[in-house]
Amino acid sequence: MRSNRMGWGLLAPTLIILGIFGLLPFFYVIYVGFFDWNVFSAEVGRQFAGADNYRRLVFDEEFLGSVGRTLLFAFCVVTIEMILGFLLAQTLVRDFPGKAVFRTIYALPIMIAPIAVGATWKLLTIPGFGLLPYYLDKWFGIEYQLGSHSGQAFWTTVVMDVWHWTPFVTLTMLAGLTAIPKEPLEQAQVDGANRFQVLRFLTIPMMMPVIITTLFIRIMDALRVMDEVFLLTGGGPANATRYIGILIWRVVFPQTNYGYGSAMSLLVLYMTLVLAFLLFSVLSRVGKQNTSEK
Amino acid sequence: MIDHTKAVSAPVEHKGRKGFLPMETNLFDRISISVYIFVAICLLWLRFIEPLGPNVIYGALLCVLLGIFIVRKG
Questions:
Q1: Closest approach of chain A CAs to the CA of B43, in angstroms?
Q2: Can you give the pLDDT at residue B3?
Q3: pLDDT band per the 50, 70, 90 thresholds, residue A27
Q4: Share of chain B above pLDDT 70, in %
Q5: Which chain A residues are closer than 8 Å to B33 by Cβ?
Q6: How far is B74 from chain A (nearest CA, A)?
Q7: Could you give the CA distance from residue A289 to residue A205 in angstroms, rounded to a whole number?
Q8: Topology of the domain comprising A48-293
Q9: What is d(CA A141, CA A127) in angstroms, rounded to the nearest whole number?
Q10: What is the pTM of this model?
């Protein structure tokens, strides 16, 4: 029998780090989710609560509302980012004067920390001081009130996220576009295919792995959005932008309700996993159908 | 001597199979699907069935049986 000792030895540091920093906290969160643990409660320490946290969770209007808002937010930002990113990648793949400079400037938002993005957008949107309320009022006559208009607050967080993460989508799409072989595309054009047909039957199917990967990364990020929105709106007005990340933060830190917060975190993880699984199944099937059609 | 003319492939085996689930799955896929269904049914049970009487433990037992069925026949 062939010995795998050397292989396991080389893998060991990675597995140990993964175990300590990845799996252990995960199982600890599952464990804590079954306890009532509030440092400011009358009972000292953790009290076993069984499924009580989950029982409370499924009836918690605030939690269910924030799940709905987070899903809506994720749907809006991911859809816009994927379409915009793909179109911009199609533009950037061609040569034009100043392309390198534009690409560098365009990629700058990804390098900014989310907390700085939130602070920047906060400065941009302060009524009576920020550029956005000023120009919206001057050019379109729109009264922009981030602190009191829930619709405006929601869409501002969407625009902020799109501004922050579209360059990332563009760069990954660009990497995918430059990596696909040119021969099939040229052959299709010689055979008389128009640009839309080339895009629909060749470019998109060949880029499917990149599209799926980018989609997963963006969905996971969008579902756990927290810092930039927290700095911009603080979850308000009322609870219009209280996404699940902000709600968990409120439950775990100011309210120190660790058990309930852990249960919420687990449900968000579950939601992300199921969404990723369903999307992967559907997209893989679409990819296979496209390959068999060809 | 190493034969460089032979095609090299990673020693990874995908033992997928087709059961009653609408796709080819390996053991890990079927366990994942069972866990997803377990959580979903338990949460729905807590929300809609438990207020009528039956404890969630019955739902969990049902899910375990369903999980075994999925892992074996899925």
A1: 7
A2: 61
A3: very high
A4: 80
A5: 277
A6: 15
A7: 10
A8: MetI-like fold (1.10.3720)
A9: 14
A10: 0.84
Which residues are registered as beta bridge partners of B17?
B25
Q: Are A75 and A129 in contact (CB under 8 A)?
A: no
Are B39 and A270 in contact (CB < 8 Å)? yes
Please answer whether residues A260 and A147 qualify as being in contact, where contact means their C-beta atoms are separated by less than 8 angstroms.
no
SS in 3 state form for A237-280?
A: CCCCCCCHHHHHHHHHCCCCEHHHHHHHHHHHHHHHHHHHHHHH
3-state secondary structure of A169: helix
Residue whose tokens read 């302060």 = A126
Domain boundaries, chain A: 48-293
Give yes or no for residue A15 having a pLDDT over 90: yes
Tokens at A248, concatenated: 């968990």
Is there a contact between A58 and B43 if contact means CB atoms under 8 Å apart?
A: yes
Instruction: Check residue A156 and give its pLDDT.
Output: 92
Q: What is the pLDDT of residues A113-127, one digit of tens each?
A: 989 999 999 999 988
Of B23, B33, B43, which is closest to A54 when you measure between CB atoms? B43
Identity (one letter) of the amino acid at A34?
Answer: F
Structure token digits, residue A109: 């938002």
Check if the beta carbon of residue A73 is closer than 8 Å to that of residue A151.
no
**Tokens representing residue A16 in the block:** 């140990």
Q: Does B61 touch chain A (CB under 8 A)?
A: no
